[in-house]
TrEMBL record:
Domain of life of the native organism: Bacteria
Cell location: Cell envelope
InterPro entries membership: Chondroitin_lyas, Hepar_II_III_C, Ulvan_lyase_C
Principal subcellular localisation of the protein: other
GO molecular function terms noted in the UniProt entry: lyase activity
Protein's UniProt name: Heparinase II/III-like protein
Pfam family, one: Hepar_II_III_C
Species the sequence originates in: Parapedobacter indicus
Amino acid sequence: MKRVITIFFIVNTSISCAVSQEVHPHILVKNAEKEAILEKIDKHEWAESIFNEHYNKVTPYVKRHQKDPEWIVSRYLMNRVKGKRYTHAYDDGSGHFLVKYSGDAPVPTVRVSTHKRSPVTESGAPYIRPSIEELIPYDTSQFIWALNTETNQKDFIDPGQFVSQINGEINDLALSAAIIYWLKDDENYAKFAADILNQWARGASYQEPIVGACRTGFLDIQTLGDNQYQALILAYDFLYPFLKKEGYELGWYQNVFDKFASTLTFRGYWNNNWYAAVSSTLVYAALNLDDKEKQDYYLQFVLEKDTINGACGHLSLATTVKDWLTPDGHWKEPGGYHNFPVSNLIKAAFALEKNGYPVFQTYPELFDASYAMLKYSFPNLYVSAFGDTGRASQSPETLEIGLAVAAKYNRPEIAGMTAAMNTLIGRGIYKRSNSGILGLLTYLPDIPAVESKPFSWPRSGTLDFARFFFQRNGTDEKKGLMYGVQGASYNHNHCNGMAMELYGGGEVMGVDAGTGPNYEHYLHQNYFSQWAAHNTVVAAGRSASTPFSGGAGKKNIGQVELAAMEPLPGNDGISPFYSFTDTRYLDRSTGTNQLRTMGIVRTSDSTGYYLDIYRSDNQISNDYVYHNIGDTLFLSDQHDTPLRMEPTEYPLSGDDHPGFRFFSNVKKKENISKSLKGAFHAKNRAGDEVMMHVFFPASDKTYYTATSPATKTAGRQYANKRLPLFTIRSEKEAWTEPFICVFEPAVGKANSTITSVEKIAELCNGENTVIRVQHTDGSAELIFQGNSAEATVKGNNFSFSGFFGIISLDMDGNLQQLYLGEGDHIAYDDVKVTTSDAPGSVWIQFDTKGEYSISTNKPVTIHLNGTEIHVPKPTKGSSMGSMRDFQAVSYGIKPAGKR
């Protein structure tokens, strides 16, 4: 890729800049704002804490620099040997690693990372890079000493990404010193930062972007790594007066900024998060250019014009908002990928705003993007880990910047954004004192004191691009319930069919595996991104993408389709206690049809459970797989007698594309015809003992227990620990006899309410499932699943036709509640509810006085004690029967009386 050098001036642009670049600083702040920032430090503890943190960290280096000015610059990783002061580096043709160098500059040049990943051991364990103090001064070796976390010994290894990370750590020190100089006028800090910048810019000015694939960057094997030099681009902005006064050669910097801007404009990928993730570095570099025509040339590609060349290039904000953000602002990749591109886009937009470009006014969608993640969070404020990602949470950085701009324009979004920020701070997930240099310089001194309600948590939702569907019940961190079902083909997806995650006791307990050591590691490609690492069903032991794929990027698995859901995304729930999702999937690799019905049953303000019914019609075999955080898993019969599990090898098929071969400590129990139960014993991040109880109605299937490779998504308490799992195997189709599991999370051992889960076998077939869940207080639920709105079952004193239904009985067997989830009718004894316009959803609650309240989304007819009552229109919060106030329909409000 040759660097484009044609320069022209933009005319008739929709966004124009009116700020002269002769005055520094100007990218993030201006001289006129210095006193306000100093006042922020003086009057706000959080800002003072940030300043002191950076001051205390960099000051020892500055003091050493006064006596030994060579110490810090000698630790910077440079090509220092004459004849090997390389100006060109060459990749392997695909942008994965460097293969050779050429050229010889008259001064040392900046070393570039030799590989796109940080080094790991063969088994995937990370290395710990050396500290600045441990680095060899003026090191000329291409290798480095790093700590092996498996052996606790230092190995002499190819450093890979450690090169940019080590230089990046020194770059951050330079930025801290530059800002302290600007705020305090202490030239000792300026000299320290300037000497680092001077060595860097002098060498980089002789270098060219890496020769090879378009993913390669200017000073890193990939453009993403060029972000490590963003701190020096910003430091220049603060140091400019000192650099000019002291006679530093400023031409070096202009040359380097031009190369950064060009590389990040035309390289990298536009068809994923890549280009957006470098957008702030691109904008900062462009804004530092003195040549206004060059600056306008590069900024046009940020604002309005795309630079698409095959898969390479950069998309403008105009295209990004249209193609890469959902209507509510979520980046169209896994949750862990939202923060990376969106935070950089918002930082870039903020700098453009600071320099006269009204970007947020032109693209108000950026306000929604700044806090979109919170909507999809579990009650502990972490999001689902589906796809190539870890378990991310809402970025306070994007929200803070968005708030600053929203306050500037008095935007209507400010109320929701403030509610989101108060949620993050109130839950202890964010402290403003941890917001770093960006927070010190750009965040508002105080969160706006606008009138705002608590953050509005949706009861259900979907991310259509990922076919992710979630149901939530309660937002309390320990008492809340939430599950998500997901599966689709999109960038950074996994091969997982209809995978799910379950929440309980303050943690995501039924975890998705997330990523392996890195995308190229055999564990990631053959396990973490494959079926066996997820809570799903594997067909014929061969479920896989077509063709088989395990690396990063899009993997072709088809997509989950929604058949029914109550409440639908954006709608209020019919019942405060019940909700469900029915999804369908075709496993293309095996031609297997699958159906998954999941539901939440809330039994009190602090207890509840999940129902999971999974049908799979493969005639060879079907494996139901479930992973949970925990230290142990025990299976027993209904009387708590442990099962005697037999050590075995997990049955594999062919090349084992699902990845079962990575299970360890495998045991099995077959020929079981009675109901079973299991218990995962675990701890949450707070140290509380939490349990996931599992109940298995009687079925003719084989049960396996095992442990999985350690994941990055199970919380810090399970870092580097293998996790327990179970599978249920059917060596025939599992459509007419589906997998049925009831999961009950609980804090503490004694807080389970379920005593048994039984299948009413005579009513179960390929179209319907009926189970009875019994509780310690004698109450019970009859739960119905149907494959369609017309699926009908009839018992001695009940009947049902629909996708999902619940009959709730008290300890004396009296009817408490009826719930019909998208169907025709539900009936018990002499009470029957029929929707006039099927399918519909309805919920009725009865009290001890024989009075009832109703909530419905369709007209219904109620048959009660021989009386026919018509409810002519959808109702919620209305009074029926006794005409008293209905207290139980609002999400999160506990109904009056005993449940």
